[in-house]
Specification:
Layout: H1 2-10, H2 12-41, H3 45-66, H4 71-95, H5 100-121, H6 131-136, H7 157-160, H8 166-183, H9 185-193, H10 195-200, H11 205-244, H12 250-278, H13 287-305
């Protein structure tokens, strides 16, 4: 099995058919995991869930207005929908007598249902914009046909120009997430663990929370087109949750979460493509679905074997150290 897998990696077909989707899945997973750590500690993980769902109606509206599946209108539509959702969640949180989790649930289920209805009642299936792609994305189709003659193509600027556009887009998104966490580390950590102390130190906790929500929306929107809402939700929650059970130090937790996200993407894609064959079955399964399954299994393993598994209040930030 290992020899066959190594032979597959060494072949030109791997660079053409498998390397781009693996890289895209890994970058999407890590880009979502970075803000997901702070959402988890703030007990706001459902914000990532909500934003990943509401990207759907924004994308459909953008298509209906422009009549084409183009990256810029889709990103603008999804981003606009995410901002609307964030505003509605904040309005309900402030003025409705319901707890914050309920306000998120109301907003994202309603807007996602609107998106599904728009898909079902408009002629979008012909352009590969349907409920199935919204849920599971199109990771397997993000291949590198032009110029990918082997591993040497990675050093050929002419060949690199033909990479799937989702790859550089997610690379920039991951870089933006890393820069945001690096530059805002102190303010994020203090406002997450002790908002009162943060306010006393002059940190604008409301603005920091809004900025975190905005960066979460950016990650969700960038990843949604490639991997769908199922994987986006899993990556916001599962790697940080597993990492939280491995340590009580924030920096180490973030590093663990990135490692778990990377392992989930690579192992999940391999199992989706080759797992059925190894079991004597034909065909393959959804890559995004398998990556989400692997990330869930990592959380289960961390819950059973992680050194911090028995600590109460896993998501609470007060007991963690920056």
């Amino acid at each position: 099995m290992i020899a066959a897998l190594w032979a597959e990696i060494a072949s030109p077909d791997f660079v053409m058919l498998s390397l781009p989707p693996i890289a895209i899945g890994a970058m999407a997973a890590m880009a979502c995991a970075l803000p997901g750590n702070f959402l988890l500690l703030r007990r706001q993980s459902m914000i990532g869930d909500a934003i990943s769902h509401v990207a759907l109606p924004g994308i459909v509206v953008a298509f209906l207005l422009t009549g084409q599946v183009a990256s810029v209108p889709m990103m603008l539509g999804a981003g606009g929908a995410a901002l609307v959702a964030a505003a509605l969640i904040e309005v309900l949180r402030r003025f409705a007598p319901i707890e914050p989790g309920a306000s998120m649930g109301v907003v994202f289920t309603t807007l996602f249902a609107v998106g599904v209805l728009l898909l079902e009642t408009s002629n979008t299936a012909d352009v590969h914009l349907d409920v199935r792609h919204a849920l599971m994305g199109s990771l397997e189709s993000l291949v590198w046909f032009e110029g990918a003659a082997g591993w040497g193509a990675l050093l050929d600027p002419a060949a690199l120009a033909w990479l799937p556009p989702q790859l550089p887009r997610l690379a920039l998104t991951l870089a933006a997430m890393a820069l945001f966490v690096r530059l805002g580390w102190t303010a994020l950590a203090i406002s997450t663990f002790d908002p009162g102390f943060a306010a006393a130190q002059g940190i604008r906790t409301g603005a920091m929370s809004a900025l975190l929500t905005g960066m979460t929306a950016l990650a969700a929107v960038a990843a949604f087109e490639a991997v769908g809402s199922i994987l986006v939700i899993a990556m916001f929650i599962c790697p940080p949750a597993a990492a939280r059970m491995m340590t009580d130090r924030l920096g180490v937790q973030v590093a663990w979460s990135l490692g778990f996200a990377l392992v989930s993407a690579v192992l999940g894609y391999v199992l989706a493509g080759y797992g059925p064959m190894w079991l004597g079955l034909s065909g393959a399964v959804s890559a995004a679905g398998m990556i989400a399954v692997v990330s869930g299994l990592i959380v289960l393993a961390a819950a059973i074997f992680g050194p911090r598994r028995a600590r109460s209040g896993m998501a609470g930030g007060a007991s963690a150290r920056a």
